[in-house]
Every structure is written in structure tokens, then in C-alpha cells.
């Protein structure tokens, strides 16, 4: 049971109890469900700063002006050789250039693919979502599994195979949604 399901079940039980006791209306503060004003018209991430904190990021993260990367993969740390190979295979299958950023400012891109929850915390500390979802305030940021998870669990494990299928289906949906 997810947290959302738990909350909804608790709310349902509370309403059922209120109906049993004879109440027919419930006062609810709706302010918690409203989006902040700055998030309503959000389309893309803000323009990246042109300064780069380290030379290693400079090569991978900064493009000449006018060139926009289609997809950028975001990871919390440098990828192992096996995980980097997985990302390269994904990029080749999607017919895109494998651009992976592990720190520094984000390069200009149409879509950002966050590889794992640690990368989500690192690059977007104020937002959380699970694999297979877009960030609530960033419609061009998709979160999926980290390839390091596949390496750690074993690439041929049945659990990994199902997650890889889920990841692949989600990435194809991202490409379709953003017409890449």
C-alpha cells in the first residue's frame, strides 16, 4: 500500500464514520491542493548558467549556444562501466546522443531523464516522484531507474528484467510525448 493509498483509505474511513454519526458535509481546507502561482505556467527549466564549476562537467554539460540536446541523463555520481554501457545502449536504441551529467549546471535540453531517486534528490531537492513519472512542476523531467540498480541486482535477474521493460516503455513514451 502506497502512502497515497493509505491517506485515501483513511479519509474514506473518516467520511464513513462521519456519515454514520449523521454528518453530511465536511469542511476541508483546499489551500494544500493548490499549486503555487509560479508553477502554474511552467514549461521548461530555467536557462542554465553559463559558468561551469569543474572542467570535467564542462565537456559533458555545456553545448555551444544554439545547439540544444534532445535528451540529457542525470545521475548522482559517475556511472560504473557496466551502467555507462547500459545508458549508451539505451541512447543508441532511442537514436540519440548519450549525454550524462553528474554535477554542475544543467545543459539546455528538451527532456531530462533522472536516473534514480538519489539523482532526483541531488538535482531537484524540492520535488519527489517515483520511477515512471514526470516531476510535478517540471513537465520535461522524467524519473526512471538508475542503471546502477540493474548492475547491483544482476542484469539478468527476473526482477531487473521487468524493471528494464518498464523503463524502456517509459522512455519510448517520453520520446513520443516530446516528439523526439
Describe the overall structure.
The protein has 180 residues and is of the alpha/beta class. Helix content is 43%, strand content 14%. The protein has a five-stranded mixed β-sheet, sandwiched between helices. Helix 4 packs across helix 6. The radius of gyration is 20 Å and the shape is elongated. About 10% of the residues have low confidence.
Would you summarize the structure shown here?
The chain contains 7 helices and 5 strands. By secondary structure, it is an alpha/beta fold.
Give short descriptive properties of this protein.
180 residues, alpha/beta, 5-stranded mixed sheet, 7 helices, 5 strands, elongated
Please state the overall shape, judged from the principal axes of the Cα atoms: elongated
What's the pLDDT, averaged over the residues?
80
Percent in strands: 5-15%
Give me the oligomer status: single chain
Order of helices and strands: HHHEHEEHEEHH
The parts where pLDDT drops under 50 for at least 5 residues are 48-65
Number of strands: 5
| Termini Cα gap | 35 Å
Helix/strand-derived category reads alpha/beta
Q: What share of residues is helical?
A: 40-55%
Total number of helices:
7
Radius of gyration: 20 Å
Give me the side-by-side strand order of the main sheet: 2-1-3-5-4
State the major sheet: 5 strands, mixed
